[in-house]
Design a protein that fits this description.
With 350 residues, the protein is α+β, with helices and mostly antiparallel strands. It contains 12 helices and 14 strands. The protein has a 5-stranded mixed sheet, with helices on both faces.
């Protein structure tokens, strides 16, 4: 009997387009003899459109953006019990940040990936870094501001950045991924431009100390007993690994496995698992690190819903670990069912 799998994608997010690329790739990898695939497209305005059951892979992302179909109240198809498991292929706000996960929890539906807490904490870079600090994970120095504080005294904000971090530094929206709204700053003028840019995407920004380091990534897979993939390295041909390098031009070298000593690899994997557990993650995570020339290791962030595009690091890391893409997708679905079954043991009466 086939598993009825619902794919949620699109979303009211600056990473809407990224989600479409991910959905196309996942659909192409699924075994249609094993799964009945039901797509739900969430428009950029937040409307949910339920499409017909898919009978073949899609040719392009445009075909995933339904202009017709049943526009339904949020959750109508979910409440009906039509699906066995939900796969949220949503990146960024209103999807990766715990909002959709909360909806699925209330409906008591199995879903792929991280839960409410891990999703929301993993999306907010300030909260994530505060939790990492509590877990004593090594990080670069950082400061953060809300829009109102910055608007009331921009000079004080810039002086704090220069005093505590210096240049170069990176300004980022606190609640966004895929390198959207991120700027590298080497002087006050660039810092001012970067704040204005980042505050377009969030009410809170984080500023991180710049370090000269290699960019290292590792995949984590599992629930209560997570495992790590091989370790990979990103070598961007630009100043840093921005949105275009990730999803469009492919102007980035991915070195898998990374050419680093075995003891450093083990340290990266152990730190990634500790980060995974500190946020109570489940399903999947991509953990990103900085490795300096003298061997200092800093965790940069985790991504609780890494992309599955042709340029994506997460599936490539697992492929080199011996887990092919279709198998990886099935493993994630199995982990979702496993976690859901465990939750059914919780008592709600006493």
């Amino acid at each position: 009997m086939k598993t009825k799998l619902c794919l949620l994608y699109g979303g009211k997010s600056a990473e809407h387009q990224v989600s479409l690329y991910t959905a196309k790739a996942v659909i192409g990898a699924l075994n249609l003899n094993k799964y009945d695939i039901y797509p739900i497209y969430i428009t950029i305005d937040g409307n949910w459109i339920e499409g017909e059951k898919l009978t073949s892979p899609v040719e392009d992302i445009e075909s995933l953006q339904f202009s017709s179909g049943e526009q339904t109240a949020v959750g109508k198809g979910l409440v009906s019990g039509k699906y066995d498991v939900i796969f949220p292929l949503l990146h960024g706000t209103n999807g990766e940040d715990g909002t959709v996960q909360g909806l699925l929890e209330v409906m008591n539906l199995p879903y792929v990936g991280n839960g409410v807490l891990a999703s929301s904490a993993g999306m907010d870079k300030v909260i994530m870094k505060n939790i990492f600090a509590q877990a004593q994970l090594p990080q670069v120095n950082y400061v953060w501001f809300i829009r109102k504080t910055w608007q009331e005294d921009k000079e004080a904000a810039y002086e704090q950045v220069e005093r505590e971090l210096g240049y170069p530094c990176f300004v980022k929206p606190a609640n966004l991924g895929s390198s959207v709204g991120i700027s590298k700053c080497t002087n006050r003028s660039e810092l001012d431009e970067a704040f204005n840019e980042a505050f377009q995407y969030d009410r809170k920004v984080i500023i991180e100390e710049g370090v000269v380091a290699r960019e290292i990534e590792v995949g984590v897979l599992g629930n209560d007993e997570p495992e790590c993939s091989v370790v990979g390295e990103i070598v961007p041909k630009k100043d840093f690994y921005d949105y275009h390098a990730k999803y469009e031009d492919g102007h980035t070298a991915l070195i898998i496995p990374a050419e680093i000593p075995a003891d450093i690899q083990r340290q990266i994997q152990q730190t990634a698992i500790k980060a995974f557990q500190s946020l109570d993650c489940s399903g999947l995570v991509r953990a990103d690190f900085f490795l300096t020339e003298n061997g200092e290791l800093f965790i940069n962030e985790i991504n609780t819903m890494p992309g599955f595009t042709p340029f994506s690091m997460f599936p490539l890391l697992w492929k080199h670990a011996g887990v092919e893409y279709p198998v990886l997708i099935e493993k994630l679905i199995e982990l979702a069912m496993e976690r859901h079954q465990e939750k059914q043991q919780i008592k709600y009466t006493f």
